[in-house]
Amino acid sequence: MIVAALSFTTMLFFVRYLEGRYPSIEVVFFRALAGLVFVIPILSRQGISGLRTKHFPMHVSRTVFALAAMFFFYYGVAYVPMSDGTAFTFIIPLFATVGAAIILREKVDAPRWTATIVGFLGTLIIIRPGYAEISLPVLAMLLSAVFYAGSWLSMKILTRTDSASLIVLYMNVMIVPLALIPTLILGKMPNFPDLLVLIGVGLTGSFAHFCQARSFASADASAVMPFDFLRLPMAVAWGWFFFTEKTDLWTWVGAVVIFSSTYYIAWRESRLKTSD
To answer: What span, in angstroms and rounded, lies between the C-alpha atoms of 163 and 250?
Structure first.
């Protein structure tokens, strides 16, 4: 999880370094293209049988959610401080909780609803509507959290029957052509240094998800999630050192509130599973 936090912060740094010089859809294209590097070798050992799925429409649904999430995320991250971009990602599990109750009809008890509401209050602390300007990049970050939650819920359904590598493969294979067309129309040819950075976005982002998956598979979520919070101090340090970004105290306060509520949900679910 520590390596995942470092990889995710590196990906944020790469996107921030580009400073919006390339359309976010072009960044999504390179993200998906580089992501294929991780899954194709794994599935090539399984042969054609490893590509079969009974839930192709759900793969399409997950791809649409992921494409929209990455589009808004890469747009917002290019213009907000790295610390704020990191803090907003802590909101995703909270939206996923709401979606699980509404879409998947999962039973969400009072403690989880309370933790979710507290997490949303943490979001308001960061945004401070009425006191701070709510810009388009900030709204883009919030929208990305909503779409990422939809992607998570779709993936949760797919993991009942399909392997993680197959799910990632279908998503990247479908995103590449979907993002390629607008990239050819709206994008611009990157110079060689920027091309390396765009490839780096894809590799570090994919590696971060790979490390997270291995972490959750090896230990309870409640045990490893505190290490995920390391992304915030890493982002603050990198933003200050490389971009001279100043972090608002309210970003820290809101992030702690959001993460505490998310961690409580993970800790409580771990206790419930143990008691079962």
So the answer is: 40
